[in-house]
Amino acid sequence: MPAAMLTAALSPHPSTTNDIVSRIAARIHWGQTGGLAIAYTLQGDCERIRIPPPRPPQRSDGLWGHTCFEAFVAKPNSTGYIEFNFSPSREWAIYNFTGYREPAPLPEAAAPEITVLRKQTELEVDASIDLPRSPLDKAAPLRIALAAVIEDSAGALSYWALRHPTERPDFHRRENFVLELQSFDEQAGMGK
User: In the 8-state DSSP scheme, what is residue 187?
Assistant: First the structure.
């Protein structure tokens, strides 16, 4: 099956720029079994970035308060969406929303697989996630927003996203969901 991979560059919010990170690129595509595979590659001075140390993979809230990578996934004509957080510590979080910042009960979801590769000038965080059965499914295309929070050695945060439509960083804004990934079923049909 040919993998339709989307690639994108994240940019810092104008109010939170710094000279530590020179680039954050992201890639997203369907995995072989219908989960999403997301890879973030940060280039910069990793010695000046607070990168959480490795921990056992587990669900944890508040990851966005430190270096963390995020994905927001929705159906194209829905107000609801799911937020995924991936920490370099290998901790993760999932949140469900019925509309803009309107929390909803969490759907059943498996823990993502997170791998981390750290070098002096590069940090790569790869996450493989199975989509919750509801409200998302692999039979429909998806609208996606990708983002990152980067904490420097002094504790200051910079906010990176595909778009910054507001004066303050806000990853939840629907205007950020600029990537469209064809459905897994459409992609699978291309390989037949």
Answer: H
Buried b / exposed e along 23-61 (16+ C-beta atoms within 10 A): ebebebbbeeebbbbbbbebebebeebbbbeeeeeeeee
Show the tokens assigned to 139: 């039979």
95-134 confidence digits (pLDDT tens):
999 999 999 998 777 889 999 999 999 999 999 998 776 5
Q: Which helix (H) or strand (E) is 189 found in, with range?
A: helix 184-190
Return the structure tokens found at 62: 């508040």
Tokens of 34: 């219908």
pLDDT greater than 50 at residue 145:
yes
| Per-residue confidence band for 33, with pLDDT thresholds at 50, 70 and 90 | confident
According to CATH, what is the number of the domain 6-190? 2.60.40.1190
Omega into 165 within 30° of 0, i.e. cis? Answer: no
Q: Evaluate whether 81 touches 177 at the Cβ level (below 8 Å).
A: yes
Amino acid letter, residue 163: R
DSSP-assigned letters across all residues of 75-97: -TT-S-EEEEEE-TTS-EEEEEE
Type of residue numbered 184: F
* Residue length of the chain: 192
Q: Are 5 and 22 in contact (CB under 8 A)?
A: no
Q: Say whether pTM exceeds 0.85.
A: yes
